[in-house]
Amino acid sequence: MLDAGVGTGRNFPYYPHNTMVTGIDLSPAMLARARHRRDKLGTMVNLKEMNVTEMDFADDSFDAIVSTFLFCVLDAEYQKPALEELCRVCRTDGVIHILEYAYSEKPLQRFIMKLWAPWVRYAYGAEFDRNTEQYLEAAGLELVETKFLYKDIIKLLLVRPKGV
After folding, report:
1. Distance from C-alpha of 46 to C-alpha of 19, rounded to nearest angstrom
2. Range of the domain at 80
3. How far apart are CA 65 and CA 136, in angstroms?
4. CATH no. for residue 81?
């Protein structure tokens, strides 16, 4: 399994037991925190400094990929290249789980999110309006399912390489 954009390793406790996991991130500081968390929890995660738009893994390397709030920090010009790379390294029968933010459709919640958006952008480099779904088809991926995990703000996209 690949954790693309592993960050500080907050997903570590949720990985399936006895699963070989590789986590990548572009930030050495985030990886240092992930190493500390990995060692503290005793999880078996291979961590690598790597850009999700230029991964050095072979084609079809992973049967499962997870990306947690990675695409909300990628600018528009990096969305498609990152998705293409995930498609390339995902086995044809594999699945990619993408967790990301969305602006709420509820007027009050949306208003509050728009008020917070500049601070979230400054503090985390994240945006609520990336709409990653729009890049899936061009990247060779198909959307299998979308579901909201928290209100209509945090959504999970289940995608896979086309043609399965």
Report:
1. 11
2. 2-161
3. 15
4. 3.40.50.150
Are the beta carbons of 4 and 52 closer than 8 angstroms?
A: yes
Question: Roughly how many angstroms between the first and final C-alpha of the chain, as a whole number?
Answer: 19
Stronger pLDDT, 83 or 121, i.e. the higher one:
83
Distance CA 44, CA 79 (A): 29
- How far is it, in rounded angstroms, from Cα 71 to Cα 76? 9
Cα–Cα distance measured from residue 164 to residue 115, given in angstroms and rounded to the nearest whole number: 42
What was the pLDDT predicted at 163? 73
> Taking a C-beta distance cutoff of 8 angstroms, is the pair 59, 70 a contact?
no
Cα 100 from Cα 87, distance rounded (Å): 18
Please tell me the total count of domains within the chain: 1
Question: 13 pLDDT band (50/70/90 cuts)?
Answer: very high
Please state, in angstroms and rounded to a whole number, the distance separating the CA atoms of residues 49 and 84.
19
8 A C-beta contact, residue 126 and residue 119: no
